[in-house]
Specification:
The complex is a heterotrimer.
Chain A lengths: L2 H24 L3 H25 L3 H33 L4 H5 L5
Helix pairs in contact in A: 1-2, 2-3
Chain B lengths: L4 H23 L11 H26 L2 E5 L2 E5 L1 H24 L6 H20 L3 H19 L6 H32 L4 H7 L4 H17 L8 H8 L2 H24 L5 H24 L4 H26 L2 H32 L17 H4 L1 H14 L6 H16 L2 H30 L4 H4 L6 H19 L5 H14 L3
Antiparallel strand pairs in B: 1-2
Helix pairs in contact in B: 1-2, 1-4, 2-3, 2-4, 3-4, 3-10, 3-13, 3-19, 3-20, 4-5, 4-10, 5-6, 5-10, 6-8, 6-9, 8-10, 9-10, 9-12, 10-13, 11-12, 11-17, 12-13, 12-16, 12-17, 13-15, 13-16, 13-19, 13-20, 15-17, 15-19, 16-17, 16-19
Chain C lengths: L1 H18 L3 H21 L3 H26 L12 H19 L14 H8 L1 H22 L24 H9 L1
The chains are: A mainly alpha, B mainly alpha, C mainly alpha.
């Protein structure tokens, strides 16, 4: 494993992370927010595996990456359930229309 | 059982979770009935049974110091901090389970509510005990997932859906940041065990970034000020028992998880101390200013949680920065007293909310004008609310005074000018907080009863008993402030050792 | 070089997922990101997690999204962001540059032992993780069932205003049921 490919992959993790943060700031559709969250998690999982690879602990990082993938699938399931429920209750997937109901 | 009582402390709640769900599902009240759900009794029984391993763990830790246990390569350590967190969550969950029976009567999906409430106890107990960075993340994520449904419990109300989605998205961003930080730590140290990381870590910019990401990621859950926006919504629309749990335990659990992760990078302890103090000052001021302009009681209490967490951050921060153990002890003591006082405040506000709105079937928020003169018809909830907010406002014979006093004294102990200035700032903020606590007490006692209060619904014993117990506890701690020293002293000592003090 | 190519296509898919105006396209681009990440895993020697990323990340999650989109409807996304795009760009750039500047100092620590196999680590050494994961899945499923539950009409609501009558509300089955039951 030469250092340059590690650097490329680390840069890829960062780039995905940045893209996801940008996406979270500009997205208003509830389902699309969940899609962007998935990109964020992909970046984190890639980061974990690359980190393990650097120390020759690829199997350790694999087993924690599996846990992360499963946990975040569960988060997406709950998030999509909330989005569908919001669509049924207020009739749109727009996050801003939803926050209009908050009276403060 | 006698060997590892703490395993049962995690296992009893987690094993009883599916049992509670299934029994509630099979023997629950039918579609049209509003009888209480059998899940509540099993929940209470399971939580009371969990007290036995808790007491056994306490006696073992007090006799031998911390307990080390490792399951394969994942290490667990049960020290004072774990016991403090487990005790707080167990106590509040028991009272909330008692409270929720009448509060939720007639709602659907109660069995899921109780099952997740009990799961939360086991999960938070586990969160406090793990000594492995990644295992900490898994417990933390499990804690978040089990609260999403509880926050969005009234799932036909747009406000609670909004709060639930906001909470979910922000928590998920936070946990992704923690994962990134874990990646950085793993890359630079090659280990996940907190003790091993502490031994091999150096003062590198990579680890500084990792620590900053830990603060941001766990800070979402413990409501550091720029990342707090989920909190007022989630706390005000969740069922009141869950508001009490969120405010009394969950944000504190996030803070303790943050401290555990940061303690692995203890070479940079003074940096972490300064960052925590800065966030503490921001939290206090912002929470107080926002709470002053609120008209809804539960939102007001939610913003006051922000400012109360500020005191905890300052206490822990100055303790870690200047190596003053009393600061850490004060911070941990304030976690304990804030959990009780804020739990009581939310339960008391919740009982009034139930009597005035929910029992009549509407989901309007409880406003300050609704509770005018509530003391005439609801003497105990009014008294409990007053005890709670006066304690939060730092009135001397109540519990909240002593924990803040300990933090203030520790600040003067450092003899550094800017820390003393910070303490003076904290004291001024305490005065500012009367600007919103006092009107609540005045409204409850001095004003003429509002129309809503006169037509209010009567309150059952189950709702009032937890209020009485917590009020008595707060007054008793106020009279004997050393009552919990046995718990805060080893917890603070363990934390200071972890931070290299 | 292969890594650079795969990374570039993963980033491209991610940008496309955010730019696309239809949800279903965004979901498919997300599957693209997943596939690229899975290929990178495979080339790094993380074979097991590559398979799981491909089946769960690219397969199951995409199916879930398509299912959710078909339930909620794929309206073209017309709402403009209320957060100004250039500001969002700067916000995303700051952390990336701060971390990126440090990245080139990254050197791994060589560990002095030979690692055990994936199965041993996952099921034995990190067994507690798997147990907590089971709890986590159970809590998530309970939460999902609770949120999507349709038996909702609370028997307590006698006064006839169960919902704060939102404007332009969808004619969902739940609403019709709620009206019938009153």
């Amino acid at each position: 494993m030469n250092p340059s490919s590690i650097n490329i992959l680390a840069a890829c993790v960062l780039a995905l992370f940045g893209v996801a943060i940008y996406g979270l700031l500009v997205t208003r559709n509830l389902i699309k927010i969940m899609i962007v969250l998935q990109i964020l998690v992909k970046a984190a999982v890639l980061g974990l595996v690359v980190a393990g690879k650097m120390n020759g602990q690829i199997n350790l990082s694999q087993s924690i990456a599996v846990t992360v993938i499963v946990a975040d699938t569960v988060v997406v399931i709950v998030g999509l359930a909330l989005a569908i429920q919001a669509r049924q209750v207020i009739g749109t997937l727009d996050a801003d229309a939803l926050s209009k109901f908050r009276e403060d | 059982m006698s060997n590892n009582p703490f395993l049962w402390l995690i296992a009893i709640p987690l094993i009883s979770t599916p049992v509670i769900y299934l029994i509630g599902r099979v023997f629950g009240p039918g579609e049209e009935s509003s009888k209480p759900c059998p899940s509540q009794y099993i929940t209470l029984a399971a939580l009371l049974a969990t007290w036995i391993p808790y007491i056994l763990s306490v006696s073992e830790v007090l006799a031998n110091g911390s307990i080390e246990y490792s399951s394969q390569s994942i290490a667990f350590r049960i020290d004072g901090l774990s016991l403090l967190l487990a005790g707080l969550v167990l106590a509040l969950a028991t009272l909330v389970a008692l409270f929720s029976g009448a509060y939720l009567a007639g709602e659907k999906e109660q069995e899921k509510y109780y099952a997740l409430l009990v799961a939360l106890v086991g999960i938070i107990a586990g969160l406090g005990m793990t000594n492995d960075l990644f295992n900490l993340w898994v417990w933390f994520e499990a804690m978040s997932i089990s609260t999403y449904f509880l926050v969005a419990f009234y799932r036909k109300q747009p406000r609670s859906l909004e709060a639930g989605i906001k909470y979910l998205v922000q928590s998920a961003i936070g946990s992704a940041m923690i994962l990134l930080a874990i990646g950085l730590v793993l890359a630079s140290t090659g280990s996940l065990n907190l003790d091993l990381i502490r031994q091999v870590s150096t003062k590198s910019p990579m680890l500084l970034i990792a620590g900053a990401l830990f603060i941001l990621g766990f800070g979402v859950k413990s409501a550091l000020v720029p990342m707090h926006t989920w909190l007022p919504d989630a706390h005000s629309v969740a069922p009141s028992g869950i508001s009490a749990m969120l405010s009394g335990v969950i944000i504190e659990a996030g803070l303790i998880a943050m401290l555990r992760a940061l303690s692995a990078l203890s070479l940079m302890a003074s940096e972490w101390g300064i960052i925590l103090m800065a966030f503490g000052a921001a939290n206090m001021l912002f929470g107080n200013l926002m709470a002053l302009s609120q008209t809804q009681v539960k939102r007001l209490l939610a913003f006051s949680s922000l400012s109360q967490m500020g005191y905890v951050f300052i206490g822990l921060g100055l303790g870690i920065y200047a190596n003053v153990i009393n600061g850490v002890r004060g911070g941990l003591f304030h976690i304990l007293t804030h959990g009780m006082m804020k739990g009581l405040a939310f339960l008391a506000a919740g009982s009034l909310l139930y009597a005035l709105h929910i029992a009549a079937g509407d989901h309007m928020p409880l406003t300050k004008s609704d509770i005018c003169g509530a003391a005439r018809r609801y003497p105990l909830p009014a008294l409990a609310l007053s005890v709670a907010v006066l304690g939060l406002g730092c009135i001397p014979p109540l519990a909240g005074f002593w924990s803040k006093w300990q933090i203030f004294l520790a600040g003067f102990e450092t003899q550094q000018v800017w820390i003393i200035a910070l303490i003076v700032f904290a004291g001024l903020n305490s005065l500012l907080s009367f600007g919103y606590y006092a009107p609540l007490v005045i409204a409850v006692y001095r004003r003429e009863p509002s129309e809503l209060v006169q037509n209010g619904h009567p309150l059952s014993f189950g709702i009032q008993a937890p209020l009485l117990l917590l009020s008595v506890a707060i007054i008793v701690i106020g009279l004997w402030p050393n009552l919990f020293t046995w718990l805060t002293k080893p917890a603070a000592a363990g934390l200071m050792t972890a931070f290299g003090g | 070089m292969l890594f650079a190519l795969l990374s570039a296509s993963a980033i491209f898919s991610a940008i496309q997922a955010i730019r696309s105006k239809r949800l279903i396209e965004a979901a498919i681009y997300l599957a693209g990101v997943s596939t690229m990440v899975a290929l990178i895993f495979y080339l790094l020697g993380a074979h097991e997690v590559a398979v799981i990323e491909l089946s769960v990340g690219a397969g199951l999650v995409t199916v879930l999204f398509v299912f959710a989109i078909s339930l909620a409807g794929d309206e073209p996304i017309s709402f403009l962001p209320n957060f100004p795009k250039p500001l969002a760009f700067i916000f995303a750039l700051i952390p990336v540059t701060i971390i990126g500047l440090q990245l080139f100092s990254l050197t791994g620590v060589s560990m002095p032992f030979i690692e055990s196999s994936f199965n041993e680590i996952l099921w034995q050494e990190r067994g507690p993780d798997v147990l907590v994961q089971v709890v986590l899945i159970f809590c998530g499923v309970l939460g999902m069932l609770g949120i999507l539950s349709t038996t909702d009409v609370s028997t307590k609501k006698k006064s006839g205003l169960p919902i704060a009558n939102p404007p332009n509300s969808a004619k969902s089955i739940d609403h019709i049921e709620a009206k019938e039951n009153q």
